[in-house]
Amino acid sequence: MELGFLGLGIMGKAMAKNLLQNGFKVTIWNRTLSKCEELVEYGASIGDTPAAVVKKCKYTIAMLSDPSAALSVVLDKDGVLEQMCSGKGYIDMSTVDADTSTKISEVISKKGGYFLEAPVSGSKKPAEDGQLVILAAGEKSLYDEIIPAFNVLGKKSFFLGEVGNGAKMKLVVNMIMGSMINAFSEGLVLSDRSGLSQQTLLEVLELGAVATPMFKMKGPAMIQNNYAPAFPLKHQQKDMRLALALGDENAVSMPVAAAANEAFKKARNMGFGDHDFSAVYETVKSLGDSK
């Protein structure tokens, strides 16, 4: 199977590399072309534009940073839409809101193409290991055709029905994750300020009902102030904002998520936007630093 792949950020690069290492022919594109060079060593071809990639490939996957990027890659000059036609499939694995997915679906369909949204749950390490959870919605026939690629990229794929459902599910998941990392940060600071060992707290949590892979993975690095980005904080804050908007649409009260979003915004203002989302810990620490 030959695939196009648009977007080689932290996630996209790992995903495209996995596909190449598992026998797929992949034509890649990225706004910063230098990011393509490493994957050429693994057998990738480079497309000059998104349109060129779509022209060459029956199926094209996109993994982009936000709704604006997802729309521009489709709609701008030399974009996906210019070469979209009957029989071609477009799979957007970016985390966006349901309205953005719907807009992309509509323009792809008008050109005769097939559309699938397929945001993923997971960060850099699961992407590298092919252990993502894929939340797909849209054209079921395209889902069935692209499953061989999904099986390489993820440990499980869900088909959630109509376009928008994948985007909504991803926002709910990331909203919960963002709220949890904030509570975890408060616990780490509280234990430290109370004269307790943070390392012991991690061990206690791991043995109890609130044990999670996220706490186990992030905790030791947070204690060491190591925020190498697996999932950039600015993208987590974007997802919190979109999740809160979804809450507004459905009249769902979300005070915990709203408070977490404020913490992420503060962290961005403190200069941690490009650090891992666990750097929100710094906002909690900063509240007592002057004492």
Structure explained in plain terms:
- With 291 residues, this protein is of the alpha/beta class.
- Strands 1, 2, 3, 4, 5, 6, 7, 8 and 9 form a nine-stranded mixed β-sheet that branches.
- Helices cover 53% and strands 13% of the residues.
- The protein has 13 helices and nine strands.
- The N and C termini lie far apart (61 Å).
- The radius of gyration is 20 Å and the shape is globular.
- It folds into two domains: 2-161, Rossmann fold, CATH 3.40.50; 168-287, N-(1-d-carboxylethyl)-l-norvaline Dehydrogenase, domain 2.
Short description:
The protein contains 13 helices and nine strands.
Can you identify the CATH class of the largest domain? Alpha Beta
What is the helix fraction of residues, given as a range? 40-55%
The number of helical segments is: 13
Name given to the CATH homologous superfamily of the largest domain: NAD(P)-binding Rossmann-like Domain
Anisotropy-based shape: globular
> Can you tell me the CATH architecture of the largest domain?
3-Layer(aba) Sandwich
Task: Please give the largest β-sheet.
Answer: 9 strands, mixed
**What class would the helix/strand composition place it in?**
alpha/beta
How many domains would you count in the coordinates? 2
Number of strands: 9
Work out the strand percent.
5-15%
Distance between the termini: 61 Å
Name the poorly predicted regions.
none
CATH topology of the largest domain, what is it called?
Rossmann fold
Q: Would you list the SSEs in sequence order as H and E? A: EHEHEHEHEHEEHEHEHHHHHH
Q: What's the gyration radius in Å? A: 20 Å
Mean pLDDT: 96
